[in-house]
Amino acid sequence: MTPIRWGVLGAAKFAREHMAPAIHAAQGAELAALATSDPAKAAGFQAFCPALRIHDSYEALLADPAIDAVYIPLPNHLHVEWTLKALAAGKHVLTEKPIALRAPEIDQIIAARDASGLLAAEAYMIVHHPQWQRAHEWLMAGEIGTLRHVDAAFSFNNAAEPGNIRNRPETGGGSLRDIGVYTFGSARFVTGAEPTEVSARIRSENGVEVFAQVAARMAGPAGDFTYHSMTSMRLYNRQVVTFQGDKGMIRLEGGPFNANVNDLAEVELHRAGNSVLVERFPTANQYKLQVEAFGRSIRTGAPYPCPLEFIRGTQVMMDMAYDNAVDLAF
Fold it and tell me: Measured in whole angstroms, how far is the alpha carbon of residue 108 from the centre of its chain?
């Protein structure tokens, strides 16, 4: 099997710690090049991939004929621009979330993807993890009866990092854009539902939303249900999602979005008589699984498990939350 040769556009910390090692470890993939003008940042990648070629500009990497696909971990406001440039350069492209800041921008990428015949996707890694696939299987099998309510929370505190791109309005910061994609998207993935009504209460600092409470009515193959979520960049670390039916409950807690990073990846099925079935996934690396799924789609032409059309649905829900938001004074 000829490996897909990957280039990374920018030496982001997340790329160095998670995605570049995942590309390096993935079957059928080769981490081949990095674009950065900072030798010190390049050294962090070359520490685990000594043969890595370094380009001093993004344009130079996109012009490299030896690169088949690029991973883009740039700040949010640059995602659409460089995704389109990568496709125009003839590269398959995997772009960090959120791939766009508004849903219509994703339409541009879908059109460019279709015109080029290349694969373009958002790096929405959780859907590749078996814990979320199991939650979907249990729900659709009726293990918790009729779904009535979903609630999700994701928080961390980066108040001490005012320069962090998540805390800057000009780089597309905000808790919903950074982690609301997980609370929204995980509920949509497991249930197959879409929002019919969305309301939100948000608190902002320096022009950036740092806390959001979102309520929605959802409709899908599992029926209609209510949804509530909380995201914050000013609270202690918390990750939990609960799918509650009339006969049971599916719960992912501890680190469902950062599987095996913050805590062991596991999913719980609660049923009548207070019985709890716990399934654990200690070795699954969702980043590596994502790269391998991306490669399979390129090689075989099979549909990518998480297409841009799904990603657009999450962005629509986020747009609805922002458009209907009420500001909190506290």
Answer: 19
- What is the pLDDT, as a whole number, of residue 274? 87
DSSP 258-321: SBTTTB--EEEEEEGGGEEEEEE-SS--HHHHHHHHHHHHHHH-PPPSS-HHHHHHHHHHHHHH
Beta bridge partners of 205: 208
Identify which of 258, 309, 310 has the alpha carbon closest to the alpha carbon of residue 284: 258
- Coil, strand, or helix at residue 269? strand
Among the options 13, 97, 247, 288, which is catalytic?
A: 97
247 a catalytic residue = no
Q: pLDDT value at position 324? A: 97
CB-based contact 311:120 (threshold 8 Å): no
Element (H, E) at 323: helix 308-323
CA distances to 163, 177, 235 from 160, in Å: 9, 19, 12
The 8-class DSSP code of residue 239 comes to E
Q: Tell me the pLDDT of the chain averaged across its residues.
A: 96
Asked if residue 276 lies in contact with residue 268, where contact means CB atoms within 8 angstroms, the answer is yes
Q: How far apart are CA 138 and CA 13, in angstroms?
A: 36
